[in-house]
Amino acid sequence: MPERFPVQIEGRDLELSNLDKLMYPAAGFTKGEVVDYYTRVAPVLLPHLRGRALTRIRYPNGVDGAHFFEKNAPGGTPSWVRLETLPVPGSTKARETIDFVVVDELATLVWVANLASLELHTPQWRIGEHPDLMVVDLDPGAPAGLQECCAVAMLMRDRLGEDGLSAYPKTSGKKGMQLCVPISGMQDSEAVSGYAKRVAEELSARVPGSITAKMARAIRPGKVFIDWSQNAAAKTTVAPYSLRALAEPTASTPLTWEEVAAMALGDEPARQFGAAEVLERVDAYGDLLEDLLRPGPALP
Protein backbone atom coordinates (compact mmCIF):
# COMPACT_ATOMS: atom_id res chain seq x y z
CA MET A 1 0.00 0.00 0.00
CA PRO A 2 1.45 3.43 -0.89
CA GLU A 3 2.49 5.63 2.04
CA ARG A 4 0.24 8.47 0.90
CA PHE A 5 -2.63 8.56 -1.51
CA PRO A 6 -5.19 11.17 -2.47
CA VAL A 7 -8.93 10.64 -2.00
CA GLN A 8 -11.97 12.76 -2.74
CA ILE A 9 -14.85 12.80 -0.24
CA GLU A 10 -18.04 14.68 -1.12
CA GLY A 11 -16.04 16.95 -3.41
CA ARG A 12 -13.23 17.61 -0.91
CA ASP A 13 -9.65 16.62 -1.79
CA LEU A 14 -7.48 15.16 0.96
CA GLU A 15 -4.55 12.81 1.33
CA LEU A 16 -4.47 9.73 3.56
CA SER A 17 -1.18 8.44 4.91
CA ASN A 18 0.44 5.50 6.74
CA LEU A 19 -2.77 3.48 6.83
CA ASP A 20 -0.84 0.30 7.74
CA LYS A 21 0.54 1.88 10.93
CA LEU A 22 -0.62 0.08 14.07
CA MET A 23 -2.67 2.38 16.29
CA TYR A 24 -3.70 -0.38 18.74
CA PRO A 25 -0.73 -2.81 18.56
CA ALA A 26 -2.16 -5.36 21.04
CA ALA A 27 -5.30 -5.62 18.91
CA GLY A 28 -3.56 -5.36 15.53
CA PHE A 29 -5.82 -2.38 14.72
CA THR A 30 -4.34 -0.03 12.11
CA LYS A 31 -4.82 3.61 11.21
CA GLY A 32 -6.69 2.45 8.13
CA GLU A 33 -9.15 0.68 10.42
CA VAL A 34 -9.48 3.84 12.55
CA VAL A 35 -10.34 5.85 9.41
CA ASP A 36 -12.73 3.10 8.29
CA TYR A 37 -14.47 3.03 11.68
CA TYR A 38 -14.99 6.80 11.75
CA THR A 39 -16.21 6.76 8.12
CA ARG A 40 -18.76 4.04 8.87
CA VAL A 41 -19.98 5.54 12.17
CA ALA A 42 -20.17 9.04 10.67
CA PRO A 43 -23.95 9.05 9.99
CA VAL A 44 -24.66 8.83 13.75
CA LEU A 45 -21.51 10.61 15.01
CA LEU A 46 -21.55 13.76 12.85
CA PRO A 47 -24.83 15.18 14.24
CA HIS A 48 -23.25 15.16 17.72
CA LEU A 49 -20.11 16.97 16.49
CA ARG A 50 -21.72 19.62 14.27
CA GLY A 51 -21.41 23.16 15.54
CA ARG A 52 -19.18 22.18 18.48
CA ALA A 53 -15.55 23.17 18.98
CA LEU A 54 -13.52 19.94 18.80
CA THR A 55 -10.67 18.89 21.07
CA ARG A 56 -8.66 15.99 19.65
CA ILE A 57 -6.33 13.64 21.52
CA ARG A 58 -3.75 12.55 18.97
CA TYR A 59 -1.62 9.40 19.10
CA PRO A 60 0.78 9.73 16.13
CA ASN A 61 2.53 6.47 17.06
CA GLY A 62 -0.45 4.59 18.42
CA VAL A 63 -1.83 4.12 21.91
CA ASP A 64 1.53 2.91 23.30
CA GLY A 65 3.31 6.08 22.14
CA ALA A 66 3.24 9.70 23.27
CA HIS A 67 -0.01 11.59 22.86
CA PHE A 68 -1.11 15.21 22.98
CA PHE A 69 -4.30 17.26 23.29
CA GLU A 70 -4.95 19.53 20.34
CA LYS A 71 -7.51 22.31 20.26
CA ASN A 72 -5.87 24.63 17.74
CA ALA A 73 -6.07 23.90 14.01
CA PRO A 74 -2.71 22.32 13.04
CA GLY A 75 -0.43 23.58 10.31
CA GLY A 76 -1.50 22.34 6.90
CA THR A 77 -5.21 22.39 7.74
CA PRO A 78 -7.10 22.33 4.41
CA SER A 79 -8.81 25.59 3.46
CA TRP A 80 -12.22 23.89 3.39
CA VAL A 81 -12.11 22.80 7.06
CA ARG A 82 -14.44 24.97 9.18
CA LEU A 83 -12.50 26.96 11.80
CA GLU A 84 -13.98 29.10 14.56
CA THR A 85 -11.84 31.57 16.55
CA LEU A 86 -12.95 31.43 20.17
CA PRO A 87 -11.64 32.97 23.41
CA VAL A 88 -9.92 30.59 25.81
CA PRO A 89 -9.55 32.34 29.17
CA GLY A 90 -6.95 30.70 31.37
CA SER A 91 -5.33 28.77 28.51
CA THR A 92 -2.25 26.83 29.64
CA LYS A 93 -0.43 28.21 26.57
CA ALA A 94 -1.42 31.82 27.42
CA ARG A 95 -3.36 32.18 24.19
CA GLU A 96 -6.17 34.73 24.08
CA THR A 97 -8.01 32.83 21.34
CA ILE A 98 -7.80 29.47 19.57
CA ASP A 99 -8.77 28.52 16.02
CA PHE A 100 -10.92 25.48 16.77
CA VAL A 101 -11.72 22.83 14.19
CA VAL A 102 -15.46 22.16 13.79
CA VAL A 103 -16.40 18.80 12.28
CA ASP A 104 -19.53 19.50 10.25
CA GLU A 105 -18.96 17.03 7.40
CA LEU A 106 -17.54 13.62 6.58
CA ALA A 107 -14.40 14.93 4.85
CA THR A 108 -13.36 16.83 7.99
CA LEU A 109 -13.98 13.76 10.14
CA VAL A 110 -11.80 11.61 7.86
CA TRP A 111 -9.08 14.30 7.82
CA VAL A 112 -9.14 14.40 11.65
CA ALA A 113 -8.98 10.58 11.85
CA ASN A 114 -6.04 10.52 9.42
CA LEU A 115 -4.14 12.77 11.88
CA ALA A 116 -4.38 9.87 14.39
CA SER A 117 -6.94 11.81 16.44
CA LEU A 118 -8.23 8.69 18.17
CA GLU A 119 -10.32 10.52 20.77
CA LEU A 120 -12.82 13.28 19.98
CA HIS A 121 -14.07 15.51 22.82
CA THR A 122 -16.70 18.26 22.67
CA PRO A 123 -18.15 20.88 25.04
CA GLN A 124 -21.82 20.89 26.09
CA TRP A 125 -22.52 23.96 23.93
CA ARG A 126 -22.69 24.78 20.26
CA ILE A 127 -20.70 27.77 19.02
CA GLY A 128 -22.42 31.04 19.90
CA GLU A 129 -25.03 29.36 22.10
CA HIS A 130 -25.69 28.42 25.73
CA PRO A 131 -25.35 24.73 26.71
CA ASP A 132 -27.96 22.46 25.14
CA LEU A 133 -26.70 19.45 27.09
CA MET A 134 -26.10 18.63 30.72
CA VAL A 135 -23.62 15.80 31.23
CA VAL A 136 -23.32 13.72 34.39
CA ASP A 137 -20.04 11.80 34.42
CA LEU A 138 -20.02 8.67 36.59
CA ASP A 139 -16.47 7.75 37.52
CA PRO A 140 -15.93 4.57 39.59
CA GLY A 141 -13.19 4.34 42.21
CA ALA A 142 -11.87 0.77 42.37
CA PRO A 143 -13.06 -1.73 43.48
CA ALA A 144 -16.28 -0.11 42.21
CA GLY A 145 -16.67 -0.47 38.45
CA LEU A 146 -19.11 -0.06 35.62
CA GLN A 147 -21.74 -2.24 37.35
CA GLU A 148 -21.87 0.20 40.27
CA CYS A 149 -22.02 3.12 37.82
CA CYS A 150 -25.08 1.54 36.19
CA ALA A 151 -26.83 1.34 39.57
CA VAL A 152 -26.06 5.01 40.28
CA ALA A 153 -27.16 5.91 36.73
CA MET A 154 -30.62 4.53 37.46
CA LEU A 155 -30.88 6.56 40.67
CA MET A 156 -29.79 9.66 38.77
CA ARG A 157 -32.24 8.97 35.93
CA ASP A 158 -35.14 8.72 38.39
CA ARG A 159 -34.08 11.86 40.29
CA LEU A 160 -33.76 13.88 37.08
CA GLY A 161 -37.12 12.52 35.96
CA GLU A 162 -38.71 14.13 39.03
CA ASP A 163 -37.67 17.47 37.54
CA GLY A 164 -39.01 16.59 34.09
CA LEU A 165 -35.60 15.82 32.59
CA SER A 166 -34.76 12.81 30.40
CA ALA A 167 -31.33 11.16 30.71
CA TYR A 168 -29.66 9.07 28.01
CA PRO A 169 -26.84 6.68 29.01
CA LYS A 170 -23.57 5.88 27.25
CA THR A 171 -20.40 4.13 28.32
CA SER A 172 -17.28 6.26 28.49
CA GLY A 173 -15.32 3.64 26.56
CA LYS A 174 -12.84 3.50 29.45
CA LYS A 175 -14.14 2.53 32.91
CA GLY A 176 -17.21 4.61 33.66
CA MET A 177 -20.20 6.12 31.88
CA GLN A 178 -22.04 9.35 31.23
CA LEU A 179 -25.64 10.45 31.31
CA CYS A 180 -26.52 13.04 28.67
CA VAL A 181 -29.53 15.26 29.31
CA PRO A 182 -30.98 17.54 26.60
CA ILE A 183 -31.83 20.97 28.04
CA SER A 184 -33.33 24.17 26.71
CA GLY A 185 -30.14 26.04 25.78
CA MET A 186 -31.47 29.07 27.65
CA GLN A 187 -29.21 28.89 30.75
CA ASP A 188 -25.48 29.52 31.08
CA SER A 189 -22.92 26.91 32.10
CA GLU A 190 -22.77 28.18 35.70
CA ALA A 191 -26.48 27.50 36.12
CA VAL A 192 -26.14 24.03 34.57
CA SER A 193 -23.14 23.17 36.77
CA GLY A 194 -24.94 24.47 39.85
CA TYR A 195 -27.98 22.29 39.22
CA ALA A 196 -25.86 19.20 38.46
CA LYS A 197 -23.90 19.77 41.66
CA ARG A 198 -27.05 20.08 43.78
CA VAL A 199 -28.46 16.81 42.45
CA ALA A 200 -25.10 15.02 42.85
CA GLU A 201 -24.84 16.18 46.47
CA GLU A 202 -28.43 15.12 47.13
CA LEU A 203 -27.78 11.57 45.87
CA SER A 204 -24.46 11.43 47.73
CA ALA A 205 -26.27 12.36 50.98
CA ARG A 206 -28.88 9.70 50.28
CA VAL A 207 -26.36 6.88 49.59
CA PRO A 208 -23.09 8.08 51.20
CA GLY A 209 -21.54 4.61 51.24
CA SER A 210 -21.71 4.25 47.45
CA ILE A 211 -21.73 7.77 45.98
CA THR A 212 -19.58 10.86 46.37
CA ALA A 213 -19.95 14.31 44.82
CA LYS A 214 -16.52 15.44 46.07
CA MET A 215 -13.45 15.63 43.82
CA ALA A 216 -10.94 14.43 46.45
CA ARG A 217 -9.44 11.15 45.24
CA ALA A 218 -8.78 9.96 48.79
CA ILE A 219 -12.50 9.46 49.43
CA ARG A 220 -13.35 7.85 46.10
CA PRO A 221 -12.21 4.18 46.46
CA GLY A 222 -15.24 1.88 46.34
CA LYS A 223 -17.57 4.74 45.43
CA VAL A 224 -18.96 6.23 42.25
CA PHE A 225 -17.95 9.88 41.85
CA ILE A 226 -20.73 11.94 40.25
CA ASP A 227 -18.68 14.51 38.37
CA TRP A 228 -20.97 17.50 37.92
CA SER A 229 -18.04 19.77 36.92
CA GLN A 230 -18.10 18.50 33.31
CA ASN A 231 -20.70 21.22 32.67
CA ALA A 232 -18.21 24.07 33.07
CA ALA A 233 -17.86 26.02 29.82
CA ALA A 234 -14.16 25.14 29.48
CA LYS A 235 -14.69 21.37 29.98
CA THR A 236 -15.21 18.78 27.27
CA THR A 237 -16.61 15.25 27.33
CA VAL A 238 -15.79 12.34 25.04
CA ALA A 239 -18.21 12.41 22.12
CA PRO A 240 -20.66 9.56 21.56
CA TYR A 241 -19.08 6.88 19.33
CA SER A 242 -15.55 8.28 19.81
CA LEU A 243 -12.79 5.70 20.09
CA ARG A 244 -10.76 5.58 23.31
CA ALA A 245 -7.02 5.04 23.66
CA LEU A 246 -6.82 1.73 25.55
CA ALA A 247 -5.16 -1.54 24.51
CA GLU A 248 -8.30 -2.45 22.54
CA PRO A 249 -10.23 -0.01 20.31
CA THR A 250 -13.21 0.56 22.60
CA ALA A 251 -15.66 3.39 21.98
CA SER A 252 -18.07 5.53 23.97
CA THR A 253 -21.24 3.51 23.37
CA PRO A 254 -24.88 4.56 23.74
CA LEU A 255 -26.90 2.08 25.83
CA THR A 256 -30.57 1.33 26.35
CA TRP A 257 -31.95 1.69 29.87
CA GLU A 258 -32.81 -2.02 29.74
CA GLU A 259 -29.12 -2.77 29.25
CA VAL A 260 -28.15 -0.43 32.09
CA ALA A 261 -30.60 -2.21 34.42
CA ALA A 262 -29.33 -5.64 33.37
CA MET A 263 -25.71 -4.57 33.98
CA ALA A 264 -26.60 -3.03 37.36
CA LEU A 265 -28.29 -6.24 38.50
CA GLY A 266 -25.54 -8.49 37.15
CA ASP A 267 -27.85 -10.13 34.60
CA GLU A 268 -25.45 -8.98 31.87
CA PRO A 269 -21.72 -8.37 32.26
CA ALA A 270 -21.02 -4.66 32.76
CA ARG A 271 -18.43 -3.90 30.10
CA GLN A 272 -17.21 -1.51 27.47
CA PHE A 273 -17.80 -2.17 23.75
CA GLY A 274 -15.33 -2.42 20.88
CA ALA A 275 -15.45 -0.58 17.55
CA ALA A 276 -16.87 -3.53 15.59
CA GLU A 277 -19.62 -4.06 18.19
CA VAL A 278 -20.53 -0.37 18.07
CA LEU A 279 -21.03 -0.56 14.30
CA GLU A 280 -23.24 -3.64 14.76
CA ARG A 281 -25.26 -1.80 17.41
CA VAL A 282 -25.73 1.19 15.11
CA ASP A 283 -27.06 -1.18 12.42
CA ALA A 284 -29.47 -2.67 14.97
CA TYR A 285 -30.57 0.42 16.91
CA GLY A 286 -29.66 3.49 14.87
CA ASP A 287 -28.61 6.40 17.08
CA LEU A 288 -29.84 5.77 20.63
CA LEU A 289 -28.87 9.38 21.43
CA GLU A 290 -30.87 10.98 18.63
CA ASP A 291 -33.08 12.76 21.19
CA LEU A 292 -30.05 14.80 22.31
CA LEU A 293 -30.24 16.66 19.00
CA ARG A 294 -33.50 18.37 20.01
CA PRO A 295 -33.82 20.93 22.82
CA GLY A 296 -35.04 19.66 26.18
CA PRO A 297 -36.75 21.51 29.03
CA ALA A 298 -35.23 24.29 31.11
CA LEU A 299 -33.53 23.23 34.33
CA PRO A 300 -35.51 23.97 37.49
UniProtKB/TrEMBL annotation:
InterPro entries: LigD_pol_dom, MtLigD_Pol-like, NHEJ_LigD. It holds the Pfam family LigD_Prim-Pol. Residues 30-288 form the DNA ligase D polymerase domain. This is Bifunctional non-homologous end joining protein LigD. It comes from Pseudosporangium ferrugineum.
